[in-house]
Design brief:
Elements lengths: L1 H7 L17 H16 L5 E8 L2 E12 L5 E2 L6 E2 L4 H15 L23 H6 L17 H10 L14 H15 L3 H13 L5 E2 L14 E2 L4 E2 L7 H5 L9 E3 L1 H12 L3 E2 L2 E2 L3 H7 L16 E2 L16 E5 L3 E6 L4 E7 L12 H14 L5
Antiparallel strand pairs: 1-2, 1-14, 2-3, 4-8, 5-8, 6-7, 9-10, 11-12, 12-13, 13-14
């Protein structure tokens, strides 16, 4: 089990003698990780942590560069905590939705209006929010005028649909904010508390949370100098709308480490179970990770982006069964059930300015391809 392996070598790269029994060429794996190092050297991002695992064995787990440049430089560590940005969507919001479905408190075909009466869009169902086909636009500024949480939800409910539901995929942060609100109305708990109780604590993801406590600030990678907040953000959610929601949004707000993300990925590869803890059933994992938008412009699972054709952030060599997600701050994870493989890359590419790290969209697939290329016999 990954759990036992990672406990033995916590925050250390695995020894090369482990690699042969999972059919990994150590030289090629090192070449793959060199891509991440070169990204630091080219200033695509100040720092990064990369972790990859196959068949439950951590192949390599390494930190590069700086976690903070300003106001005081700090070296990146393998246990550095990152603002995961939109990885919040599949890890927290989609997974919590699936937990509620398994508890018999929600269905994919339920109307949003049944839970949020003020939404008044009879055609929009829970599944549409999960697969980004609700008709809601991608993004709106809810933060700059100082709106409260309830005012933001109210404005979302008044937002006009841009297209008929289920006719195309338009990636929507707004849809996931609304989905997070639905989870909170059903459970009468914050999204942070519900996900902690039902996902993170059971899995032992002890460095995963919304609104990190102040005592952990020294371990957190910095993000952008926010012109709106007029400061470098360290331990505050980068996404402005999530910040306006109190740091807890269905779209963004989660902080975590590469190590904790590895636990979550292994749970998915294990079809919902990690060590002795089951989070979701195997059938639910299968449903989440199959194409729910057949015939539309982009393949989407329930909360997950699926491996697609040309230009996929997954790269070229992960199997067609692969699924994953990216985050604006420079985070990504991809899971390949065919090869029993996952690849995690977390960076602070928006530090000190989001314009610095635009090349991250190229480095992610290059790294994924190179890791797959280190597998012998494929």
């Amino acid at each position: 089990m990954l759990a036992k392996m990672m406990k033995k070598q916590k925050y250390k790269s695995s020894r090369t003698d482990h690699l042969e029994r999972v059919d990994i060429d150590p030289t090629k794996l090192e070449q793959a990780f060199q891509i991440i190092k070169e990204g630091v050297e080219r200033r695509v991002y100040p720092g990064a942590v990369a972790l990859t695992s196959r068949r439950g064995v951590v192949l390599k787990h390494k930190a590069y560069g700086k976690a903070v440049l300003f106001p005081e430089e700090k070296i990146m560590q393998v246990d550095t905590i990152f603002d995961l940005a939109s990885l919040t969507k599949p890890i927290v919001t989609a997974t919590s939705t699936m937990v509620l479905i398994e508890q018999g408190r929600l269905r994919l075909d339920d109307k949003v209006v049944d839970f949020v009466p003020e939404f008044k869009r009879e055609a929009v169902i829970i599944k549409h929010l999960l697969v980004h086909t609700s008709g809601l636009p991608a993004w709106k500024d809810f933060y700059s005028e100082g709106r409260s949480y309830q005012e933001i939800i109210g404005e979302i409910c008044q937002t006009e649909l841009g297209y008929s539901p289920a006719t195309k995929v338009v990636y929507s942060c707004i849809g996931f904010i609304l989905l997070g609100e639905i989870i909170q109305r059903i459970t009468h708990k914050s999204l942070a508390l519900f996900s902690k109780e039902n996902i993170f604590t059971p899995l032992g993801m002890n460095n995963t949370f919304f609104n990190p406590p102040i005592e952990l600030k020294e371990r957190i990678a910095a993000t952008e100098f926010c012109r709106w907040r007029k400061r470098i953000l360290i331990g505050e959610v980068h996404d402005e709308n999530a910040y306006a929601l109190g740091g807890i949004g269905g779209n963004a707000g989660l902080f975590s480490t590469a190590y904790d993300l590895a636990i979550f990925c292994q749970m998915l590869l294990n079809k919902g179970k990690y060590d002795k803890t089951r989070i979701l059933s195997s059938s639910t994992i299968e449903e989440m990770t199959k194409n729910q938008t057949e015939g539309l412009n982009e393949p989407r699972g329930l909360g997950w982006l699926l491996k697609s054709g040309k230009g996929s952030p997954a790269g070229d060599f992960l199997s067609t069964a692969s699924y994953g997600h990216t985050g604006f701050t420079g985070t990504s994870l991809w899971i390949d059930p065919v090869r029993d493989l996952f690849i995690i890359l977390v960076t602070n590419r928006v530090h000190p300015d989001r314009r610095c790290g635009e090349e991250i969209s190229r480095i992610r697939p290059l790294f994924n391809d190179a890791v797959v290329g280190s597998i012998m016999g494929i």
